[in-house]
Amino acid sequence: MNFIVPDRIETGSRIRAAARSVARLAAERADALDRTGGFPEHDIVHCHEAGLLAAPLPMALGGSGLDAPALAPVLLDVLAEVGRGSLALGRLYEGHVNALSLILRYASGPVLERLVADIRAGHLFGVWNTQPQSGGLDLDPDGTGRLAGVKSFASGAGSVTRPLVTARRPDGRQQMLVVTLEPGTRADLSSWCAHGMRASTSGVLDFTGLSVDAQAAVGEADDYFREPHFSAGAWRFTAVQLGGIEAVFDSLRTHLVATGRGGDPHQAARLGEAAIAVETARLFVGRAAAMAADPDAEPARVIAYVNLTRLAVERAGLDVLERAQRSVGLAGFLQTHPLERLMRDLATYLRQPGPDRALTHAAAHVLADDRPADALWRDHRDEGTLDRSPVDRQPDCAA
User: How, if at all, do strands 203-206 and 187-188 pair?
Assistant: First the structure.
């Protein structure tokens, strides 16, 4: 029997359609799940049935190749689409995609084979690397091959059954592990009393006493922190944030149309400013995705641009939130208004770790780079021209 491998366009169309279907149903369920413990279980099942959980795998392994550099624009659209339907689901799905990307990059053959079977079976993966300053996760601290300690702010705690975690080895370095968990075990969600993103069920996961073997290890020590992938991969969560920003914008526009207030010049001005912010975020995320997927791009330049993207998307999100709140007014803060949960979820998800460090890191790169502004993030491969030094660009004013 001859099999026809779908081309990139057909693959992209199919995955985007699956994401739209998942996002539509997730949006319908999101308000009911906006409560403590309101994990989007049915949406995760829908992701599995639609092929989104396995989509990052290469086609040869039963996926759609969504993790391939060539499909970065498709991955952007998928993450934004899911985030537009539900930011909580988008956060969980982005963590799953992140875990699979690390596994595909670093896992050895036998480990990859075992984990691919779990992926295709519908297990939800995630990346948990945050931990308290004291009491973090240790690997084999007493020589028994067991884990000791906890991870904190673990999204999907109690429901992610294959978390990829970083654990401190006896030599002090960090080892990636994919741990097997049973649903509903070892999770403490009591501290997750968040303003928004309630359905992401982020909490503390205690691994103490859990046995791991060599088949749990992904890559070598400290592979998790290898650049540029460690920092550049942040573009993915900005894509989910972009979807949340677009959801707030769409809700604002719907409100203005329904109330007949869109013709007011002040309302029109705010909507126009919000549209600028949305498109600014999408342009930044799109270029960050393209740069991160380019194997020939300068690593330092990629990291700096992704760091700028993080702050640009945050600023765009805050601008859209402010204009939505001013345009809709107090009604938007009532639980009965569609904007109320959307705004809470977005405001919460925009709080990502180390924003000041990301900005100053990018600024340091810009300061040390002698290329002119029009060439900072572009080169001759982009524009078909040679890079020019600042001196080359100065007009000849000699008499």
Answer: antiparallel
3-state secondary structure of 135: coil
What's the 3-state SS for 326-359?
Answer: HHHHHHHHCCCCHHHHHHHHHHHHCCCCCHHHHH
Q: For residues 280-318, b (16+ Cβ closer than 10 Å) or e, as one string?
A: bbbebbbbbbbbbbeeebeebbbbbbbbbbbbbbbebbe
Q: How many residues in total does the chain contain?
A: 399
Closest CA to 282 of 99, 94, 77: 77
- Closest to 91 in 3D by CA, of 157, 15, 141, 142: 157
Cβ–Cβ < 8 Å for 148, 134: no
Q: Which residue has the tokens 């939800």?
A: 124
Per residue in 277-296, pLDDT tens?
A: 999 999 999 999 999 999 99
The two structure tokens encoding residue 386? 């040679």
Amino acid at 190: S
Measured CA to CA in angstroms, residue 233 lies from 6, 286, 315 at distances of 27, 13, 19
Phi, psi at 9, each rounded to 5°: -65, -45
Is residue 36 within 8 Å of 193, Cβ to Cβ? yes
227, 303 contact by CB (below 8 A)? yes
If you write DSSP's letter for every residue of 66-112 in order, what string do you get? TTSGGGHHHHHHHHHHHHHH-HHHHHHHHHHHHHHHHHHHH--HHHH
Please tell me the predicted confidence (pLDDT) of residue 140. Answer: 87
Low-confidence residues in the chain, pLDDT < 70: 1-6, 380-399
Locate the DSSP E strands across the chain.
125-128, 138-139, 147-148, 150-154, 162-168, 174-178, 187-188, 203-206, 217-218
Compute CA distances 183 → 110, 147, 240, whole Å: 25, 18, 25
Residues 238 and 313: beta-carbon distance below 8 Å: yes
CB atoms near residue 260 (< 10 Å)? 8
Half-sphere exposure of 66 (CA within 13 A, CB side): 30
Q: Nearest Cα to 236, choosing from 279, 159, 292, 165?
A: 292
